[in-house]
Amino acid sequence: MKVLDKIKVCCDCLMVIANGDYTSLAMHPETEDKRRDEIDAGLDRLANIGHVACGDSVNDDHLSHHACECCESELAGSRHECVLLGE
Description:
The protein is of the alpha+beta class. The protein has two helices and four strands, in the order E-H-H-E-E-E. The chain has helices at about 10-20, 30-45; strands at about 1-10, 50-55, 60-65, 75-85. The radius of gyration is 12 Å and the shape is globular.
């Protein structure tokens, strides 16, 4: 496998990519289902390109105003490097 692209994702997406862990979404029950749907839609879209995996934490942005490249959330916050792997 080779790196096809590098993307930056929010903390919620990172936990799902790394561990399949959606539990942090429960901290905000009023938006939990919406966020799960946004993350799943983003992962489905990215799966059409390649396999998503965690990247190098050295390249994380600790405060970013750029949209998450997975769920497309525009909330400011940390963005973590992930990679799209493919043949």
